[in-house]
Amino acid sequence: MHIQVLKSKIHRVKITQAELHYVGSITVDEDLMDAANIIENEKVQIVNINNGERLETYVIKGERGSGMICLNGPAARKAQVGDIVIIISYASMEFEAAKNYKPVVVFPDDHNLLY
User: Fold this and answer.
1) Residues 68, 70, 73, CA angle at the centre, nearest 5°?
2) Does pTM surpass 0.85?
3) Which residues does the Swiss-Prot or TrEMBL record annotate as the active site (predicted)?
4) Binding residue per annotation — 73?
């Protein structure tokens, strides 16, 4: 039996940009992607702390070291610049393996940068 478990998350980052007229996705600073073990095109869930919105999309690489977190396309309607979000990725794994799996959790600073 396979179950879905938390693979990794980027905890409490600020939306820096929202581009409504863009093909959908979320652009994430590549440093944050690497730290959270998230790859380009990976499906993620976005949870908006400010308004309770939740959505699923996929990740595209943002400029390394920029702190960029940009919601693109229709997702741009779910948050405003300055909103705090959590970016969550999940993995499917065998039940017994999941019991011992340790997810990666990244806590960026107030500028979406790593300490």
Assistant:
1) 160
2) yes
3) 25 (schiff-base intermediate with substrate), 58 (proton donor)
4) yes
